[in-house]
Design a protein that fits this description.
Helix content is 39%, strand content 11%. The chain has 786 residues and is α/β, with parallel strands linked by helices. It has 3 domains: 384 residues, Thiamin diphosphate (ThDP)-binding fold, Pyr/PP domains (Rossmann fold); 218 residues, Rossmann fold; 134 residues, Rossmann fold (3-Layer(aba) Sandwich), CATH 3.40.50.920. The strands form 4 sheets. A 6-stranded parallel beta sheet has the order 1-5-6-4-3-2, with helices on both faces. A 5-stranded parallel beta sheet has the order 8-9-10-12-11, sandwiched between helices. It has a 4-stranded mixed beta sheet with strand order 14-16-15-17. Helix 9 links the parallel strand 5 and strand 6.
């Protein structure tokens, strides 16, 4: 489909642009003719049709076909990769931000494996788990516990509906719109910082629909600003989404969704732009991709291919987004006709005709027909000579990679060294600087200073960002001592402070997840907890999925990212209820598989560094630390009869016991309520001779990682049924620890009176919530009267 003419917006004459724009058309001189990718594309399109035919309503054939030719060229002509080592750190990466094209990605990876198996099998890894074989396609969108018989017999892997690192050669879990682009930016940033200028290239595939979310624009802005020049974005501009065939403005015609086109959007954010009017022409595609590699102006590059969704499939436009030909219909057989002619064999039927499989209702029979169809694909590759030609391309890619001799730059960041230092702190081998009792400091500064210590041990492995709150959240402490200003890959590569788009928690968390996924950095992001917890939740979830999947497949240990949920709790009251959000902890605490995300709720500065190091020692995918804004008094815990700060690393601990027996058991969580309890309520309880056992919840997830016997010894089950709670967060965060109806009735939390708190100084807001010391004493007295 030819694109209408369009022009870029006029920029101010004095604007200094670093990027460039070019329109690219073939042909390319002095190429082998005919290009074996022409015949290979017939096999690819046929395999995509075959996949959808046997796994109906479970993929997106249209987008997989519109992007097919430029992905084929990347994989076989452009990228420097090693088919025998899917987790090789110096190899180029193909990142599918458009996760709904998974069907196409799996088809390409399986076909690459197949051509190598047929022609140069010595290139393949010995471990089949590190391959994507043709037989593995039988596991597309199948649960690993319920694979059909033919798939189980072929030892097929389960291929997720959207790619995750459970699949070899996939580095990130994508799928949520915009997050894949943001995390790919982070992956490229980490590779650029670790290897320096001679670094792996990150090729990102996205569609124009995936560029419409706000976090995508934020990610584009960050990459353009930081000069991430090893990042190449390949945009499949087919104008079709689920509901529209005119997503973007094109020529004089307004778009249904947005009034830009992808080339304008990338150009606006100071990316190089190569526009390919015919995104199905192999010569133009190859020329554009080679020119992109030659760009040397320090900016990321976007190649925008104008394509047709469902190209040569028989179903086009939005109709092919998540649907296609019915099972074994005439349309399906027309779509695989080219493939069948290359093999000289016919495809089986699964529609109940000619001995088919009960109209597709017999899953085992359909899977058997699918397997027979895959054998037709194998025959086509072998008989046509495609396997021999393209296996040489795969071998050349590995040779190019070896010749580049990519190595970490001198003084490259080393997250393992930082995590080793955290282990030493958590196990008592090493101590952190301590504040003198009686002085005042903030929890957020204690966190920043600990990150600084770890970053120095890891040779600058801490890369930190904030939603325009570097000093306010004290995350700037983490990068103190490194070059000032924001990171830029060429102008300021020594800086450890990232410019992630401004007030952009959404893209910031996505970018940091990609940095962490690369495995050489501790990525740190900060904002108000009220905003970071909800806006960062999706990227954190995808990062946890990816980290767990890669660890299970390849035993690659997780490297955590750290979310600084700053200004947490009611003491942010000057900003009012919009910023002082008790619910933020509830969004992250206990909401992920065990061990993948650890939340921290320290109450005083001495606990902060110890808790962070204990959390890092557990190697989760993410650590979310909830720290408050105002300075607090550093207490003499020994003189006050409180448990030592290191007790907090158990997650839950006995904070204080007043008198003998158990008149009242109180569970505390939140800095504001713990300070009020220790400094105001506890002296009054002593005066009134009320016997109290007080526990503090510093990290639910760290507590859960303890053996059950240890958990029972610290916080007995019997204590839960006689406890009341006091929290600066929400009542659901207490349900685990306060199990009786009466205990919950008497528990204190910010929403107890049925309204949000007003603005004002911290003490006033805490008192309005009924969480000050006097209110706590009254609540405990009332609880005991029962």
């Amino acid at each position: 489909m030819a694109a209408a003419k369009w022009r870029f917006p006029v920029h101010h004459p004095s604007m200094k642009r670093r990027s460039c724009y070019e329109e690219v058309r073939g042909p390319v001189p002095e190429r082998e003719s005919p290009d074996p990718l022409e015949r290979f594309d017939s096999v690819y399109r046929g395999l995509v049709a075959l996949l959808f035919n046997h796994v109906p309503l479970s993929g997106h054939p249209g987008g997989s076909l519109s992007a097919g030719r430029f992905m084929e060229t990347l994989l076989f002509r452009i990228m420097d990769t090693d088919v025998g080592a899917p987790d090789r750190g110096d190899a180029d990466v193909l990142s599918l931000a458009a996760g709904h094209k998974a069907l196409g990605l799996y088809a390409l990876l399986a076909l690459r494996d197949e051509v190598v198996r047929a022609a140069l099998p010595s290139l393949l890894p010995a471990d089949e788990r590190q391959r994507v074989r043709l037989e593995d396609l039988l596991g597309f969108r199948k649960n690993p516990r319920f694979l059909p018989g033919p798939a189980a017999a072929a030892r097929s892997r389960s291929l997720d509906g959207h790619p995750t690192p459970a699949t070899p050669f996939v580095r990130l879990a994508t799928g949520a719109s915009g997050v894949g682009l943001a995390s790919s930016v982070g992956l490229a940033l980490a590779a650029r910082d670790h290897y320096g200028p001679h670094c792996p290239r990150i090729h990102v595939v996205e569609g124009e629909g995936g560029l419409t979310p706000g976090r995508a624009s934020e990610a584009l802005a960050a990459a353009g600003t930081m000069g991430i020049d090893n990042l190449l974005l390949h945009v499949d501009w087919n104008q079709s989404s689920i509901d529209s065939d005119h997503v973007c403005r094109e020529g004089p015609d307004p778009g249904d969704y947005v009034q830009w086109n992808p080339a304008e959007l990338a150009w606006f954010h100071d990316w190089n732009v190569l526009y390919v009017p015919d995104g199905h022409d192999l010569a133009s595609i190859r020329l554009a991709q080679e020119r992109a590699l030659a760009m040397d102006n320090g900016q990321p590059t976007a190649i925008v291919y104008r394509t047709t969704k469902g190209w040569r499939y028989g179903v086009q436009g939005r109709a092919s987004h998540g649907a296609g030909h019915p099972l074994c219909s005439p349309g399906f057989y027309a779509a695989v006709e080219e493939l069948a002619s290359l093999s000289g064999e016919a495809f089986p039927r699964c529609d109940g005709n000619a001995g088919g499989c009960s109209n597709g209702t017999d899953a085992e029979c359909v899977a058997q027909c699918f397997l027979k169809g895959l054998l037709v694909v194998r025959t086509a590759l072998e008989r046509s000579g495609i396997a021999q030609a393209l296996a040489r391309c795969v071998a050349a890619a590995a040779s190019r990679l070896e010749a580049r001799s990519r190595a970490p730059r001198p003084g490259a960041p080393d997250a393992d060294a930082a995590l080793a230092a955290a282990r030493d702190v958590a196990t008592g081998v090493r101590t952190l600087p301590e504040a003198r009792p009686g002085t005042r400091r903030t929890l957020r500064s204690a966190l920043g200073e600990t990150l600084n210590v770890l970053g120095r041990e890891g040779k600058g492995c801490v890369l930190a960002a904030a939603a325009d709150l570097l000093d306010s959240t004290s995350v700037s402490e983490a990068t103190r001592g490194w070059p000032a200003g924001f990171f830029h890959a060429r102008r300021n590569p020594g800086s450890r402070t990232l410019s992630t788009g401004g007030i952009c928690e959404d893209a910031m968390t996505g970018i940091l997840s990609g940095v962490s996924a690369f495995g050489k950095h501790l990525a740190v992001g900060a904002s108000y907890g009220a905003f970071l917890a909800p806006l960062g939740h999706i990227a954190t979830r995808l990062h946890a999925i990816g980290a767990l999947a890669r660890e299970e497949r390849a035993a690659v240990p997780r490297v955590p990212m750290v979310l600084v949920c700053g200004h947490a709790g009611l003491k942010t009251g000057e900003d009012g209820p919009t910023h002082a959000d008790p619910q933020s902890l509830q969004l992250l605490q206990e909401n992920f598989p065990r061990g993948t995300v650890v939340t921290l709720t320290p109450w005083e500065p001495a606990e902060v560094g110890l808790l962070l190091c204990a959390a890092l020692l557990a190697r989760p995918a993410a650590v979310a630390a909830f720290v408050t804004r105002p300075p607090e008094e550093v207490l003499d815990r020994v003189a006050l009869g409180l448990a030592p700060a290191h007790a907090s690393t158990n997650g839950v601990y006995l904070l204080a016991r007043v008198g003998d027996g158990h008149d009242a058991t109180v569970v505390l969580q939140g800095s504001e309520v713990a300070y009020a309890f220790v400094q105001e309520a506890l002296p009054e309880l002593v005066r009134q001779r009320i016997r109290v056992t007080a526990y503090y919840v510093a990290s639910v997830e760290l507590f859960d990682l303890l053996p059950p016997q240890r958990q029972e010894a610290i916080f007995p089950e019997a204590a839960r049924v006689r406890a009341m709670g006091i929290t600066g967060f929400t009542m659901p965060t207490l349900y685990r620890w306060v199990c009786s109806h009466r205990g919950r009735q008497h528990s204190l939390h910010p929403f107890r009176e049925g309204h949000y708190m007003g603005s004002g100084p911290a003490r006033d807001v805490v008192a309005q919530a009924g969480l000050d010391g006097a209110s706590q004493v009254r609540a405990i007295q009332e609880f005991l009267r029962g």
